[in-house]
Amino acid sequence: MQYVVMTVGKTHSGKTTWGGQIRKTIKHCCLIDGDIIAEFLKTNYLDLYNTDYVKENNELTQGFRLK
Question: Quick one: which of 3, 29, 37, 61 has the fewest CB in 10 Å?
């Protein structure tokens, strides 16, 4: 049997820590950390992001896009 488990929650709520514990417990388990993927994209593919945002309230402008 194959399963996909996705965790969703607030920042610093323990999602990655929990995933790491599951990875240690279950054989043939793969943990895909979204934070690492996001950092890779921002570092290597700058043209995917339009970094204009309103700094006062941290809202994205209409030009924001991620391909």
Answer: 3
